[in-house]
Amino acid sequence: MEPEYLPGPLDETALREWFRTLGLSPYQWSNGPYDRYPLHQHSYDKYLACARGSIVFHLDDREIHLRAGDRMVLPAHTRHSAAVGPEGVVCWEAAADPATRRSA
Description:
Blueprint: E1 4-6, H1 12-21, E2 27-31, E3 36-40, E4 45-59, E5 63-67, E6 71-74, E7 80-96
Antiparallel strand pairs: 1-6, 2-7, 3-7, 4-5, 4-6, 4-7
């Protein structure tokens, strides 16, 4: 599975519905302007929706820019770092076992 960018814009109700149709229970997190995450990876498939603000995910071979209403799926073990935009960011996220992959 390749990382997948799913452009919006979707409102927050539609973003939560996306998770529901996938059978996932998301949680919300936020960061202030220009916060950064160093290079890392997860053992799970990461389903993420940007509710407000913006964030850029830096992958080995490309960048994924998320703005309010955009979504993405990062397969397990995808190396990435991230940088929050100037207005901060609010995201919904859910983890899924890669053995039970869902179609986004």
